[in-house]
Specification:
Elements: H1 3-9, E1 14-16, H2 17-22, E2 39-42, E3 45-47, H3 55-66, E4 71-73, H4 74-80, E5 90-94, E6 104-108, E7 115-118, E8 121-124, H5 126-134, H6 140-152, H7 158-167, H8 173-182, H9 188-200, E9 206-207, E10 210-213, E11 218-220, E12 224-226, E13 231-235, H10 244-259, E14 263-267, H11 269-274, H12 276-291, E15 298-301
Parallel strand pairs: 5-6, 13-14
Antiparallel strand pairs: 1-3, 2-3, 4-5, 7-8, 9-12, 10-11, 10-15, 12-13
Helix pairs in contact: 4-5, 5-6, 5-7, 6-8, 7-8
């Protein structure tokens, strides 16, 4: 049988060994040996070329291996939802029993979670995907980054994640720990800022508090506020300043700080993570500079639950 016809009967060049045999290819594995024209993706699954598979071919092969009713979760589902993860595995939930292979994780689920079509594939919700992905992470920082990205990009809410972790508690200790620690913190950077502030033992700052003028006019809501000296600390991420309006808002905020006599320290999250000692020195120096001049006549209003 001509290869063109086989490809027509395949899905992106992925086909089961059983389908090949029904089409007259009695021994497809002979063509999957080293140097052969095809390759074995998983037991019973063949790719009709010997080059690197695309992500879609890899996922198609995984679902073919998993069988009818399977849905994608974990790291691969996160990627399909546009979330960053470097984990290589493909995690698939199945209604029956099946065995994984290599980086393919096949897990029985009862009941099966709801899924939706994402790019032609059955994918679980972002919250379920994040919780399942975190089950295979060992680093709290990686889990925090993934959870923060999911919330910041609007894929799910912390409440969604907590609900998933309660529903599926097996292996979700890391998720629950991160959610507790983040609390009101909206990012990995804010969590790192809190840790650094505790480490250098300056006066305890107010987090996400509202700063107003003496007559109650809003000045700003800094990430951290050192009330004794009137110092604002802003963790400004380029990743979330997408366009001119964001830039304009940052300039307007800094202008209000300057007009009120507030000294502001701006720190990039990457420096907070990669150069914590240097940032600590800058924060101490900014605090000292703010203390050397009269405290501006402004008021702090604590954020709810801060």
């Amino acid at each position: 049988m001509r290869i063109e016809h086989l490809r027509e009967r395949s899905d992106l060049g992925v086909i089961s060994a059983g389908a090949l045999k029904s089409l007259g290819v009695t021994n497809p594995w002979r063509r999957c040996t080293a140097g052969g024209p095809w390759q074995r993706m998983y037991p019973g699954v063949v790719l009709l070329h010997n080059g690197p598979p695309t992500p879609d071919q890899q996922l198609t092969a995984a679902l073919l291996r998993a069988g009818p009713g399977a849905v994608v979760t974990g790291a691969e589902a996160c990627r399909r939802h546009g979330l960053p993860t470097r984990a290589p595995e493909i995690h698939v939930l199945v209604p029956g029993t099946a065995r994984g292979s290599g980086t393919l994780i096949l897990e029985r689920s009862s009941p099966m979670p709801a899924s939706s079509d994402v790019g032609g594939y059955p994918v679980v919700s972002a919250a379920r995907a994040v919780v399942d992905a975190c089950r295979f992470l060992r680093s709290e920082d990686e889990a925090t980054a993934l959870i923060a990205a999911a919330v910041q990009r609007g894929r799910c809410t912390p409440q969604d994640l907590r609900a998933e972790a309660r529903t599926n508690r097996f292996g979700t200790k890391l998720v629950r720990t991160v959610l507790r620690e983040l609390g009101r913190a909206e990012s990995v950077a804010e969590r790192d800022a809190r840790r650094l502030s505790r480490r250098i033992r300056l006066t305890t700052p107010h987090w996400n508090a509202t700063i107003t003028s003496a007559d109650g006019v809003l000045i700003g809501r800094p990430d951290a506020w050192y009330d004794d000296v009137g110092l604002a600390w802003e963790i400004d991420s380029k990743a979330f300043h997408y366009g001119p309006r964001d830039y304009e808002r940052t300039l307007a905020r800094n202008s209000r700080y300057a007009a009120a006599g507030i000294l502001v320290l701006q720190t990039l999250p990457t420096r907070l993570r990669n150069e914590p000692d240097a940032v600590a020195c800058e924060l101490k120096a900014a605090h000292k500079a703010a203390a050397a001049r009269p405290r501006p006549p402004v008021h702090v209003v604590e954020a709810q639950g801060a």
